[in-house]
């Protein structure tokens, strides 16, 4: 049985070596910036949604490349919590049948729903990485996408991915500040 202190040490080590998932957030920021550009194109809404699926698929390979640049570690074989980050990330794939339904029946709401799913999936990372900014981002992005989706005209749907991009930039900044603020604790955990 693992004590609460050992459990927290495992979480701290994960947050330290993964740098609070900053590589994924930066990758998502770039991907949502590209999605914003897609939604400014003079194409039918359904075509923009279709392209969005493919652009979104770039997140994982881009995060892997950024992990090399940032020096983050994805594999900690001795840490039983290590797979949890990836499992939480992949969990959003189970919402894709809903996304496909929206894409096929209500394409004008596709980017809003995709944004809500993206934002909402951040919530458990607030606990995993001990980074409350994830919880704030989950609510802000999900709620903001809903408000924009209900109020934006079809010509202004690019505001939704633009809002997500700006929100992710803010989240990345907060995660970086949190990582720097907790540097002494992270330094101790990095020696584990």
UniProtKB/TrEMBL annotation:
The keyword Nuclease does not apply. The keyword Transmembrane applies. This is Uncharacterized protein. The chain crosses the membrane at residues 21-39, 45-66, 86-103, 109-127, 134-152, 158-177. InterPro entries: DUF7010 (IPR053824). It comes from Hymenobacter rigui. It comes from the Bacteria. Keywords: Membrane, Transmembrane, Transmembrane helix.
């Amino acid at each position: 049985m693992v004590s609460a202190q050992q459990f927290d040490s495992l979480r701290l080590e994960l947050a330290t070596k993964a740098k609070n998932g900053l590589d994924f957030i930066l990758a998502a920021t770039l991907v949502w910036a590209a999605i914003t550009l897609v939604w400014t194109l003079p194409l039918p809404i359904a075509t923009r949604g279709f392209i969005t699926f493919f652009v979104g698929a770039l997140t994982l390979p881009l995060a892997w490349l950024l992990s090399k640049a940032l020096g983050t570690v994805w594999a900690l074989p001795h840490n039983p919590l290590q797979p949890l980050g990836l499992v939480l990330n992949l969990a959003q794939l189970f919402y894709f049948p809903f996304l496909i339904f929206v894409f096929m029946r209500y394409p004008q709401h596709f980017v809003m729903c995709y944004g809500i799913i993206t934002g909402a999936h951040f919530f458990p990372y607030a606990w995993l990485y001990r980074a409350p900014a994830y919880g704030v981002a989950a609510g802000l992005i999900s709620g903001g996408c809903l408000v924009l989706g209900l109020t934006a005209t079809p010509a202004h749907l690019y505001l939704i991915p633009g809002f997500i991009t700006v929100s992710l930039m803010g989240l990345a900044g907060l995660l970086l500040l949190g990582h720097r603020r907790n540097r002494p604790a992270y330094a101790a955990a990095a020696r584990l």
